[in-house]
Design a protein that fits this description.
This protein is an alpha+beta fold and 155 residues long. The chain contains four helices and five strands. It starts with a helix and ends with a strand.
């Protein structure tokens, strides 16, 4: 019967290359910026495996490098990645100015605005009454309602 531990120990360099390849394939499929950091850990561990065949050291290096990359470089990469993303649909409406077509009163649950040619149910961000004809800015979208704040009266 073959000694699997010996075979495994002799092929640790190949194992780390396989882990690297799998992490890269998963990253290409998902684009979640998670497995790419483990691919970096596998790459460093691949070079460590050329120097030592100690599996414990290799696993420690793999985990340490992967977690360091994940926690210290991922936030920067995500911020860069998301800054280049184009806002679509409702996300693109946040910050837009529109006109109140029916006075906004959160207590009585009334109010509409005309936004990009469409009428939306609206609520005041801070609970203030907003009169018909006022100019407002979209702060957020909550379901089918826009949450707005007044920016001034229409001339």
């Amino acid at each position: 019967m073959p000694d699997f531990a010996a075979i495994f120990a002799d092929n640790l360099i190949v194992v780390w290359l396989v882990v690297l390849a799998l992490c890269l394939v998963i990253e290409v499929i998902t684009l979640d910026l998670v497995t790419i950091w483990f691919a970096g850990g596998a790459l460093v561990t691949f070079f460590v495996a050329m120097v030592t065949d100690n599996l414990v050291i290799q696993l420690f290096i793999f985990l340490a490098v992967s977690l360091l990359l994940l926690f210290f470089t991922r936030p920067v990469a995500v911020r860069y990645y998301n800054s280049r993303r184009t806002k679509t649909n409702a996300e693109g409406l946040v910050g837009e100015q529109c006109k109140v077509t029916e006075g906004i009163d959160n207590f009585n649950e009334t109010g509409t605005v005309l936004l990009n040619g469409l009428e939306w149910t609206a609520r005041s961000k801070n609970g203030n009454l907003i009169a018909e004809g006022a100019r407002v800015r979209v702060c957020s979208i909550d379901g089918v309602k826009v949450i707005v704040e007044e920016v001034g009266s229409e001339n």
